[in-house]
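The aim of this short unit is practical: by the end, you should be able to scan a pair of folded records and say something sensible about each. We start with the first protein, listed as its amino acid sequence and then its structure tokens.
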Amino acid sequence: MPAINLTQNLRDEYQGLFDQCQIKPEKLAEVENIISRITNDQSRYRNVETKLGIPWFFIAAIHNMESSLNFTRHLHNGDPLSSRTTHVPAGRPVSGNPPFTWEQSAEDSLKLQKLDRWNDWRLAGVLYKIEEYNGWGYRGRHPEVLSPYLWSGSGHYIKGKYIADGRWSDTAVSNQIGAGVILRRMSEKGMINFVDATIPKKPILYYSSKETEYGQELQIFLNKFPGIYLLTDGKPGQKTSDAFKIISGNYLYGDPRI
């Protein structure tokens, strides 16, 4: 179906729904459990944020919707990482060989959706991209039902859902907690703030096992200090991060030891 544009009217709709979102009391314990699990693995989401410039909480919300925060499943659709995806989108990732790491899958999925090129991570932009990730079927074919992918578990959603690709049920009820509901509770807890949100930018000096744009320049610079001897291969991994800590007192952004 045709793409939905993020118009001002749609922005206002998202803002109003988020502001008025009330989590159902019987769902609150489940919401808190999901957020606790997200918090425990926040560093993994932040590592992907560092590489792609996509907010960690957006990645976490998608991960919960697609695979219930299971790190042995593809971010695309919850298929096992032991092979390429078999459900839509099938055959992902195209490059590399299984089994894939969760990070490889996540990067492929987010790039496939061109989210690494999206630069509006204010509230409306986040909710828009989450709904788009799932598809516009609710908005396009069943506008009487707010997407449970966003609002299940809140007063915004009662019933009606797709029970399979292209198969609709008026009476089926989503048992998942919607991504918008999770983000609303995270906002209530002060974990995230959409007011005057800035766009996360990949820092120039970041940890990577692969060659980066400024990796070689950083290594050449660090080699100027006494006692530091780095291979200038442009890959700012552990040794480069160790040298950076000696000089600055901090590891490179994204170092798993942080």
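Turning to the second protein, read its sequence before its tokens, just as you did above.
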Amino acid sequence: MKNITIQSESTDRSTDDVLSWLHYLAPDAIVNKYFDTCEIRKIKIELSNRESLKIALNETAETYNRAYWYRRGRFVFRSADDKHFLNGVEHKIAGEYLTPLLKFINGNIHSNGINKFSDNEIEKLDMLHACVGLSISIPDTLITDNLGDVKKFLEQHGSIICKPAKNPFINTTVGSASIRFSGPTELITRANVDELPETFIACLFQKYIPKKIEIRSFYLGGQFYSMAIFSQSNPKTQIDFRNYDHQKPNRVVPYTLPVSLRNKLQKLMTRLEMSSGSFDLILTPDNKYFFLEVNPIGQFQWVSRNCNYFLEKLIATHLLK
């Protein structure tokens, strides 16, 4: 009987679709589901020359051959005899001590599956730097906290953009209120650069790349499932298609990446030790491809539905193998 573990968010619709396919394809499969926050109250790791590695979380043994899909969510350690999260100094000490254990567990029980929690720690700069070594074209990039550097960069390229160097979606708590906000991609021109302060928090600036189309490509099992997004003709989505125009949605169609680019991107995934992810790419008017980023937990449902790829069935089948 197949045993599968899925960690995700309770509101993620893509996870619901994968669960439906698992129930349809293998009704007798045991699916262990962890949503939002996976609380770890008890942890046990045994290492020995005589026996294979043993790991138990919350008194449940974890095994190498259990299929695992990390979609979203996080682990939180709680004391075994306390109903409340550790706080203050205790929380800091526990975090410093337990984080290496979490990384070890993550790398050893989640190796047989799709993605892992530590994929979230792969930074955008790591991706861009890896692309340079693999001859994957990226926009010229600058990270600085100085207006003078920005002006020189703008003078060099004529038109640049500013975007977050990390995940643009931020969740935080202020008092009793939960706040979620995002940092958008903004166009910086000679007309508005003087509006910036002399110094600021270090930001990521890139040369603005004109585009024929944007491409979202989902990667799994060595295969790419790509969609072309005609975002350039709409002023609202011209800089970034994620500034969705729900009144006049962008036209999207299935797309096939060239073999040479697919080979390079596959090498990138190997170097980043990622088994799956959603690529954002640009095709310029003179037919050159530029890499923007690859997100291990990016949205793929709209790619699946608009292009009839049935990615949710593909993920379920992959887990059942």
